[in-house]
Write a structure and sequence with these properties.
- This protein is an alpha+beta fold.
- Among the domains are: 79 residues, no CATH class; 251 residues, no CATH class; 81 residues, no CATH class; 25 residues, no CATH class.
- Helices cover 34% and strands 17% of the residues.
- It contains 22 helices and 27 strands.
- A 7-stranded mixed beta sheet has the order 17-18-21-20-19-22-23, sandwiched between helices.
- Strand 8 and strand 9 form a beta hairpin.
- Helix 3 packs across helix 5.
- The longest helix is centred in the C-terminal third of the chain and has 23 residues.
- The chain is elongated.
- The two termini are 77 Å apart.
Length: 739
């Protein structure tokens, strides 16, 4: 060859793909990461200088020519093991206890060949004094193909003083002994094969054929302690030919990350993968990491199946620790599968009936656990406007029948705890099941739309922010004139939007037409307000979920009770601010008195008539919010009345403290339930009730996202039919109905 090139194959390049390794000689790897080619002789001149020194360098340049110097006729035969990293470095550590010699391509692209190395039979380099070297391309292609077919060593066996074993080393029991040997095999990157394992002895050897590593441990007489009797620590194997490890069992991974999961239950499987790979150099699949996490979480919090099985006992514990509370679970009478759960704590019942506004919001959220289900919520509002959860229901699916059942249970708990049922105002998304349930169980209640649901439907239909804002302004309008003015503005922008709004009776959602008292609440907004902790709880087993809810309520009651003790005003802070603002506005109003109760209040906005006996104003603000409006405040101040005496009682600090005066008590750990319930006949009956998980499992994989295209808006949708449950709206493949 003219340029004294070293040529490998006809293509003049040796390319190994992603994570592929070439092995040359004994126990050495040549790892070429993705998309890196080793070109020898493709238009470049690569000389090999072999001198008398112990270190000989062959420069592999990319654009340089090199001369070939042959010194003292050294025959070199090398078994080379190299990892070609992403930064183009080719390195191998030289081990003191072996005759393995590294061939390293340093950052300066120099290839080191030790003087004592000999070329392997697979690659002969004949070097003679003052002669040039050439390798036949056809023969090299055949040899390189044979080299590539050798199994790659992906985990090189190394030494680690932290995992060294010694004769006489003792372990508390056989499990500890096995765990220590497993940790050693994983840390030193070799597979271990168990030969004998029983209560008195444990023997294992290296799984690699011909490797002499072997260990034997035996039990000491009279004690459970195990000790290592004999050990052959020398390995002749090079490592593992795969990225995993047989000893990385579910138990081992669980033990490795258990503490981290206890500290952070939101530790993701992907993070488990990364930690195991970073610490131990082992690659696991996502499914393996997920299964390990599920096993740990099941040991920590109990399994999903156990949660349903213990529900009857849990309900009894609620009633035992919180007397007056309602807790009941219902299963399918045919197969015993879970159907319904209803829980309401006595402290919540007392506070709602005696101190909260007569306003109730209904909402639901879907469970994100292993089994499908829906959490139903009924929530009141305290005097300061905060949510006051009253009752919770868990059902196997959201349906009209389940909403009817939930509202029936809600009516029962209110009826048995008060002589005079308050006339409630109920806010919901007014789906058919809720409407029918409210009419059947609360016939005198005012039932209105939750504006959040209404505005979301409106936004999906028209996707116009200006129209949505005008819709909210129309909902907030206090008078019919203001309401109609906003609807006309919407009609000027879009007649279709105005027609869409007018189809819904305004008495169901507009403040100006609504007959009940909303106290300024246009939305229930329950799930969104509780999402910071409810979202995480909805993925737990059912008892753990209810315990998370109970703990949150218990904390709220205590915190709000303590905070209210520091208030010195007559009204709660939010109501006090409203009254102060009304007093400031009232200073500019002119008041004319008609009699002891009726006043005419003149302002820049117009004239309003106030009746302080009936607590009403022509602007309707006093009636709708429960607090005197600015016109009423002006009238009250003109006749020397105390404004605070004319507010609804639910806004006073005394009533607020009454709302949180009761305590939600903790529930003991499930391991103590049987002991604490001895002799209780109800508890014994609960033990006899068997509740199985619902039949509907959560579908595997990532939930599908529904993305609507702009061109599909307004288009008539085709009605689809399910051949599995005979319902419309979905296909058989997406059917979530119980089997």
């Amino acid at each position: 060859m003219a340029n004294n090139d070293l040529i490998l194959g006809q293509s003049h390049s040796l390319a190994l793909g992603q994570s592929q390794t070439m092995v040359l000689g004994h126990n050495h790897n040549l790892g070429l990461t993705q998309c890196h080619d080793l070109d020898l002789g493709t238009g470049h001149d690569h000389p090999l200088g072999l001198g008398q020194a112990h270190d000989h360098y062959r420069g592999l340049g990319h654009t340089h020519d090199h001369e070939l110097d042959l010194g003292h006729n050294h025959d070199q035969e090398g078994g080379v093991g190299h990892n070609y990293r992403h930064d183009n470095d080719l390195t191998t550590d030289k081990k003191p206890d072996h005759d393995d010699h590294g061939l390293a391509l340093s950052e300066n692209n120099e290839l080191d060949v030790s003087e004592s190395q000999e070329l392997d039979d697979n690659l002969e380099l004949a070097a003679v004094d003052n002669q040039e070297m050439e390798i036949d391309p056809a023969r090299d292609l055949q040899q390189s193909q044979a080299l590539v077919s050798l199994p790659p060593v992906l985990q090189v066996r190394n030494s680690n003083p932290s995992y060294e074993l010694a004769v006489g080393q003792e372990f508390p029991d056989v499990k500890s002994c096995r765990r220590a040997l497993r940790d050693t095999a994983i840390a030193l990157h070799f597979e271990m094969q168990t030969i004998k394992s029983d209560k008195t002895r444990f023997t294992a050897k290296c799984e690699s054929e011909g490797c002499p590593w072997r260990v034997h441990a035996a039990k000491l007489p009279g004690v459970p302690t195990f000790t290592i009797r004999t050990i052959h620590e020398t390995h002749t194997c090079g490592g593992l030919y795969h990225l995993g490890h047989q000893q990385a069992s579910v138990q081992w991974v669980a033990h490795s990350v258990e503490q981290r999961l206890r500290e952070n239950p939101n530790y993701k499987p992907k993070e488990i993968l990364e930690e195991i790979h970073r610490v131990h150099g082992i690659t696991l699949s996502y499914k393996q990491a997920w299964r390990r996490k599920e096993r740990i979480m099941a040991a920590m919090r109990g399994s999903f199946e156990e949660g349903y099985r213990l529900l009857p006992q849990y309900c009894e514990q609620i009633k035992r620790t919180n007397p007056g509370s309602i807790a009941s679970v219902y299963g399918n009478p045919t197969d015993g599968c879970f159907q319904r759960l209803f829980i309401s704590f006595q402290a919540s019942i007392y506070g709602f009936l005696n101190a909260c506004r007569p306003l109730l919001g209904l909402d639901r959220t879907f469970l994100k656990s292993k089994y499908l289900g829906t959490l139903l919520l009924a929530t009141g509002f305290d005097g300061d406007g905060a949510l006051f959860p009253l009752a919770f229901g868990v059902v196997d699916e959201e349906s009209d029948n389940n909403w009817m059942w939930f509202l029936s249970e809600l009516h029962t708990l209110l009826e048995i705890n008060t002589e005079n049922m308050p006339r409630l105002t109920i806010l919901s998304d007014r789906q058919k099941g809720i409407v029918d349930g409210v009419e059947a169980n609360f016939p005198t209640a005012f039932h209105g739309f939750c504006m959040r649901h209404l505005s979301e439907s409106f936004r999906k239909e028209f996707n116009n922010t200006m129209l949505v804002n005008l819709l909210w302004e129309a909902a907030h309008a206090l008078t019919v004139i203001e309401f109609e003015a906003k609807i006309l503005e919407i009609e000027e922008i879009s007649q279709d939007a105005a027609y869409w709004i007018r189809r819904i009776p305004p008495r169901l959602w507009a403040t100006a037409y609504f007959e009940g008292t909303r106290f300024g609440h246009l939305t229930a907004n329950i799930v969104e307000s509780l999402n910071s902790w409810l979202l995480e709880a909805s993925g737990l087993p059912i008892i753990q979920m209810m315990e998370c809810i109970r703990r949150q309520l218990m904390t709220w009651f205590n915190e709000r009770r303590e905070i209210s003790m520091q208030w010195t005003s007559i009204l709660v802070p939010s109501a006090e601010r409203c009254v102060v603002e009304a007093i400031e506005c009232a200073r500019t109003y002119q008041v004319l008195r008609a009699n002891e109760a009726e006043f005419e209040v003149i302002s820049q906005e117009g004239t309003n008539i106030v009746d302080i006996r009936n607590r009403c104003c022509l602007c309707r603000g006093w009636h709708l919010h429960g607090l005197p409006c600015a016109h009423a405040v002006a009238a009250l101040l003109s006749c020397g009345q105390n404004v605070h005496r004319f507010t609804e009682s639910c806004f006073t600090v005394a009533t607020y403290r009454k709302a949180y005066s009761q305590t939600i008590h903790p529930i003991p750990d499930k391991s103590l339930w049987k002991e604490l319930s001895d002799g209780d006949p109800n508890a014994n009956k609960a033990l006899e009730v068997i509740i199985h998980p619902p039949k509907s499992l959560k579908p595997p994989g990532r939930p599908r996202k529904k993305r609507g295209r702009a061109e599909d808006r307004g288009r008539t949708k085709r009605v689809v039919h399910c051949s599995r449950c005979n319902q419309t709206g979905h296909f058989r493949t997406t059917c979530a109905a119980p089997i």
